[in-house]
Every structure is written in C-alpha cells, then in structure tokens.
C-alpha cells in the first residue's frame, strides 16, 4: 500500500533522509525504530504528503503522491489518519467536539450520524462518559485515547502513529499500546508507528524497521527482528531497552 523508493530530504541544511527504501505491508502494524534525530517522524510526514522528497518517490497504491497537486493529494489523504505525539487536541473544544471535528469538516458521515459515530469511538477507547470534558481536565493517557478515537472516527485505511506513548509512564504506555493493537485487530487498518518503546513494541508489531544514518538498515517480522545477526540492531535494542528500564 505504501512504498518509499530512494527518498531523500534535506531540512535546515541537514541531510536527514539519505535514500530511504521501505515497503509497508498492507493491513499490518509496522513499527519504525532508530536513534533520536534520525528522521523517523520526517519519514511519516512524507507518507501522508506533509513533506515532499527532494529526490525519490512516495507511492500509495502505485501512485507517486509527491508529484500530485494539492487537490489530488487531499483526496489521497482522506485514506489516512495521523495520531501526533501531543494528540493535537483543540483546547477550546470538549472531548466530543474534538472527535466530531473532522467528521463535520470533511462531511464523512451525515450530520444525524455524527453523534452515534463519536459515541461509538469514545466507547471503544474507554472514554464513553468523558465527552463533556475538556483537554485540560484529562490525563496524558486520556488525551492519547481521544486522539485515537478521532482518528478512528474517519474510518481510515491507514493510521500513522508518531510516538503515541511519549510522556506516559510505563503502565499507561503499555495500556495505549494494547489499545492500538486491539483497535488494529478490530478495524484492520494499515498501521505505521514510530516508537522508542523497546522491547514493548515487539509484542504488538507485525513488522519492525530500523532507520539509521538516513536509511532503513533492517526490516523483518517482529520476532525475527530481535534475532537479526546485525551488531548495530542488537546494540540499539539492548541499549534502548536498558535506558527504558
């Protein structure tokens, strides 16, 4: 469904992506790991067309979205949702209206259906009775759940998760991972997640890819990835896991 071919990007004079080749398996959950500052979030933004590559191609179902005009690109983006690190909620709106916002803006469902869809999504993420609350009244974990409910409400084929557990304690991070996994199983969307949560991500991911020095240096099914005979991979896994624990 998503394929990056030779993607290069320079930002602020820094050569961030240096020829990324990556194919995301359809309907599966792929997690991208790697050292901080390597461009993992930059790569996600290329997948949804928020950034365009200096060189290379970003293919969605065979169409190079980096060459599309804005109107055509917006049509492709309707297939995506993105969950940002901060959840990116509107402080002036309550939880219900935050989840309803994209449905109203993009008219994905009739107005009479919005209440049902929003309540269903809130129930699924365990916030069924929180629709009246405002972001300032929520914990970090609750904000992430609202962000996920908002993403799911659009019925996307693809959801991009940019470090969805940033700022959470280990127990809450595990709960958010479990929620993402359960929603993935229910809805069957293609998921791409950037995460530093080693080794937890191996339990929820179908595939794991590593970005280092501006390239994808390894990719394998999650269980196999942990056994890769690659000293760079093994060092990163062991050091990152030690740092977390």
SSE topology string: EEEHEEHEHHHEHEHEEHH
Query: What's the story with the biggest beta sheet?
Result: 6 strands, mixed
Structural class: alpha/beta
Cross-sheet strand order for the largest sheet: 6-7-8-3-9-10
Described by the principal axes of the CA atoms, the overall outline is globular
C-alpha end-to-end distance: 35 Å
Count of β-strands: 10
Strand content: 15-25%
CA-based gyration radius: 18 Å
Q: What is the tally of helical segments?
A: 9
Helix content: 25-40%
> Looking at the chains present, what oligomeric state does this protein adopt?
single chain
* Average pLDDT reading: 93
Ranges with pLDDT <50 over ≥5 residues? none
What would you note in describing this structure?
- By secondary structure, the protein is of the alpha/beta class.
- It has a domain at about 80-155.
- The chain is built from 9 helices and 10 strands.
- The protein has helices at about 40-45, 70-75, 95-105, 110-125, 140-155, 170-185, 200-205, 220-225, 230-245; strands at about 1-10, 15-25, 30-35, 55-60, 65, 80-85, 160, 190-195, 205-210, 215-220.
- A 6-stranded mixed β-sheet has the order 6-7-8-3-9-10, with helices on both faces. Strands 2-1-4-5 form a 4-stranded antiparallel β-sheet, with helices on one face.
- Helix 6 (about 170-185) links the parallel strand 7 (about 160) and strand 8.
- Helix 3 (about 95-105) packs parallel to helix 5 (about 140-155) and helix 5 (about 140-155) runs parallel beside helix 6 (about 170-185).
- The longest helix is centred in the last third of the chain and has 18 residues, at about 170-185.
- The radius of gyration is 18 Å and the shape is globular.
- The two termini are about 35 Å apart.
- The model has no long low-confidence stretch (mean pLDDT about 95).
């Amino acid at each position: 469904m998503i394929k990056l071919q030779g993607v290069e990007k320079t930002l602020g004079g820094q050569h961030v992506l240096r020829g990324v080749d990556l194919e995301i398996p359809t309907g599966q959950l792929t997690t991208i790991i790697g050292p901080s500052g390597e461009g993992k979030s930059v790569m996600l933004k290329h997948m949804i067309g928020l950034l365009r590559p200096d060189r290379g191609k970003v293919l969605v179902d065979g169409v190079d979205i980096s060459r599309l005009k804005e109107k055509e690109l917006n049509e492709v983006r309707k297939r995506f949702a993105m969950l940002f690190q901060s959840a990116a909620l509107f402080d002036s709106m309550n939880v219900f209206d935050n989840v309803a916002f994209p449905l109203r803006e993009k008219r994905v469902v009739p107005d009479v259906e919005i209440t049902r869809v929003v309540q269903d999504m809130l129930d699924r993420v365990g916030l069924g009775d929180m629709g009246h609350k405002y972001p300032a009244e929520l914990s970090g974990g609750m904000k992430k759940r609202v962000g996920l409910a908002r993403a799911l409400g659009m019925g996307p084929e693809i959801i991009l998760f940019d470090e969805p557990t940033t700022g959470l304690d280990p127990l809450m991070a595990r709960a958010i991972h479990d929620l993402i996994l359960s929603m993935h199983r229910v809805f069957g969307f293609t998921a791409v997640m950037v995460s530093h949560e080693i080794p937890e991500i191996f339990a929820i991911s179908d595939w794991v890819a590593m970005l280092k020095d501006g390239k994808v240096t390894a990719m394998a099914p999650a269980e196999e990835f942990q056994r890769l005979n690659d000293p760079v991979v093994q060092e990163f896994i062991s050091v990152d896991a030690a740092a977390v624990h």
